[in-house]
Amino acid sequence: MMCNVAPFVMNIKNVFKYFFLLTMIKLIHSKSIKKYDECDKFFDLNDCYYFPCLDAHYSCGRDNHLARFSYDLCLLSTKKYSSQLTLNAKIYFNHTNQCAMTSLHDQLIEEKISEKFSCTHLQLMIFNIYLDCFQNKQPENKMIRIIDLCSIICDNLQIIINLFLNLNYGLFDLRQLLVKTGRTCGADINDSIVHTIPSLLMSICLDRKNARLKQDITNVMFNTRFEPSDYDWI
User: Fold this and answer.
1) What is the distance between the alpha carbons of residues 78 and 130, in angstroms, rounded to a whole number?
2) Fewer CB within 10 Å: C terminus or N terminus of the chain?
3) Within this chain, do residues 33 and 133 fall inside the same structural domain, yes or no?
4) Phi first, then psi: what are they for 106, rounded to 5°?
5) How far apart are CA 154 and CA 215, in angstroms?
6) 170 in the Ramachandran plot: left (φ > 0), alpha (ψ -120 to 50) or beta?
7) Are residues 29 and 101 in the same domain?
8) Does one domain contain both 47 and 128?
């Protein structure tokens, strides 16, 4: 009789262990979801702090894209330099920031936040998001598709140079982002030249479609922010 009871007791213990583990997994999952929900209040307000809030849930170092590039671009374009930008430039950068937030909100879903999801995946995801957002590839924003980087760059050249040079972009490939964005509006950017950020922006300004050469060249030649090396591409 005792021999028959022992396996029964062991089975009961195993059942309790199973339910205990299942309960702990649900608690951890709920806690994880709650953490991301905390960022939703910033997302709903289009608040730049949405980026560092998300960053708090990853351990990708202080130079990761969320902590450095995304947050700084959002703050510089909506706070520090906003008053100096033209109306169209404000619309463009506001759209870019909101586009990045929305894309992150839609893509950082539970199916992608798994044990296989690494910092490398996150950095690549963020770069591709900004590539789409800089080029206005979001179909839901048709009313402002004509306002792109190429259409605002010359009228805001000095301010945009200041903005990009003050970005803490760390490991983010800002040059590649600008090259690919510039090419979408007709700028013929030579890969054999090592461009500075100002020379890239100048190249996009002067070589884009619908360039107004007289006014645009004036904007470039009298820009006090340029260094001699910025003209090496000409």
Assistant:
1) 17
2) N
3) no
4) -80, -30
5) 9
6) left
7) no
8) yes
* pTM of this structure: 0.72
CA angle, residues 179, 229, 133, in degrees to nearest 5: 20
Is residue 81 helix, strand or coil? coil
Give the closest residue to 42 by CA, choosing from 75, 16, 65.
75
CB–CB of 125/188 below 8 Å? no
Per-residue pLDDT of the chain (234 residues; tens, 9 = 90+): 545 555 554 556 555 555 545 544 443 333 344 445 788 899 999 999 999 888 887 777 777 788 788 999 999 999 999 999 999 999 999 999 999 999 998 888 765 566 667 888 888 889 999 999 998 875 555 555 568 888 899 899 999 999 999 886 666 788 889 989 888 877 777 776 778 888 889 888 887 655 554 454 545 544 555 555 544 444
Place of tokens 């789409």: 132
> Which has the closest alpha carbon to 127: 164, 91, 159, 174?
174
Full domain range(s) for residue 148 = 38-231
Answer yes or no: do 59 and 120 share one domain: yes
Q: Which runs of consecutive H residues, i.e. helices, occur in the chain?
A: 2-37, 40-44, 50-55, 71-75, 87-107, 119-134, 149-152, 157-165, 174-183, 197-207, 213-221
Residues 43 and 120 in one domain: yes
